[in-house]
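Running co-folding for aspartic acid.
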Amino acid sequence: MLRTHTCGQLNDLDTGKNVELCGWVGSRRDHGNLIFIDLRDGYGLTQIVFNPSLKQDVHRKAEELRPEFVIKVKGIVQKRPRGTENPKLATGLIEVAAESVEILNKAATPPFEVSDDVNVTEESRLKYRYIDLRRPGMQKALRLRHKVCKLARDYFDERDFVEVETPILTKSTPEGARDYLVPSRVNPGMFYALPQSPQLFKQILMVSSFDRYFQIAKCFRDEDLRADRQPEFTQFDIEMSFVTEEDIFEISEGLMNKIFSQTIGYDLKPPFPRLKYAEAMSRFGCDKPDTRFGLELAEITDIVKNCRFKIFQDVLKKKGRVIAINAKGCGSYSRGQLDELIEFVKDYGARGLANFKVEKGALASQIDKFFSKDELAGVKERLAGVDGDMIFIVADSERIAYDSMAAIRKLFGKRLDLIDEKKFNFVWITDFPLFKYNDEEKRWESEHHPFTSVHPDDVGLLEKGERLHDIRSRSYDLVVNGAEIGSGSIRIHERKLQELIFKTIGIGDDEAALRFGFLLDAFKYGAPPHGGIAFGLDRLMTLLLGCESIRDVIAFPKTQKAFCPMTNAPSPVDEKQLDELNIKIKK
Ligand code: ASP
């Protein structure tokens, strides 16, 4: 090595040692005679001091140093003079008095300063990612990500899991997104799909008697990107044979607890609580509830079913729902504040937001004349309203009522400062519906993916094709602080049942054979009962690091437009390459 120590290593116990350090020049400060530089590498910062009375020529050379030059410094570790120590820095008690300096490489003026505090556009950070990644925050994120992967690998290895790589050039996997396609040169007109997940391969590995599989898997989904999405992302992917939900929960809880306790010292205290989907919806309005605070929703459809308020009546006629929440202590909201909230719920499709303040032991509102005394008293009682509270109500289709009230709940959780930001509340959501109705395409589709098994009590409904929306599945999500971190299911392992599911969601025999024939074939030859789960590593990292964007935990992410400003991918290709692929671009 060209160095004896890293820039994050030396402390006062090293005082008097001759050392050699290599790194990048951070800030330079000239204090009269003395020149100070912060020498930085991936491990930390060490202050270097150039003293002309020690070495005149070395001091002169220090004047040539510019930000981000790569240098090697030889010197002696000394204690910083009293009063100049920096207790926030691991090396803050010492500095290195330079006896020689060698410029290993010069650097152009960087487009932004390498510091966590500078304000830079994300476009610029991604274009100059090699510089951005030098920032201590990004160093910390990627090093922690490495550690999390190592903990996971060790965890699975200790439990006899086998890591198996599955193909990247493959066939479409139905996870509900669009595929990324790759044209095949040797098979003109044919395409591979990049895997949306290793789902089908991991199930096939179960048929092949690898009864404990895991993989740190790349998945590719061509979706419109939101803040927490990337076209390619990483999962801890798991599948096991001869298991029930309980086995998957136990393995998952152990993994999460190992990761949280050994990285940030947070004991998750498994087992995690469980919540059935229907209960999650009725209490929180969503299947990813943030359970760090209460402020639960209450359905009041039954109480107001005979009220004279036309808007509610119209909704009830269409089998809609009336959902309420008690914003504690917000009874004195101004017209302006109320209007703002009405605008807020419009983003979720709601046409309005009724409000009732609790005053002198009763509910008061501009629309209270449309409700009987009993109805008002019933609402107040169900919402446990006391003077000074404000009850908000949305009446709409089930989806809109829940979506908008879940958002209102979240908003007030923050506004009323009810969320303990230091907490991690994990919860399993179970008993999801097996199917959901696609209004646009007028057909039923799988809620999770079509390989998810049916709740044993609901097989009869599936066989009869009745009340499809009531059929529950054996899928489960792991949710933490309002974000889904993992999702999986016990799978179907019988070909007949699998075919029935395909039929129900409108995938005919021919299409099934074309798309999943290999899985159905494999199921002919002895498929064991099996199930699994996958965890989103990127989102997990944002939780551990307390950052907002998954782009801050991925070395080379893409922008919201699925573009990489550093490499300029995607980009046009040569005519010749297209010819070889038999592809013509439409103008
Ligand atoms: N393949 C699923 C997903 O990516 C996870 C699973 O069911 O194991 O969400």
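Result summary
The chain has three domains: 12-105, 124-271+537-587, 293-415.
DSSP finds 16 helices and 22 strands in the chain.
Job closed.
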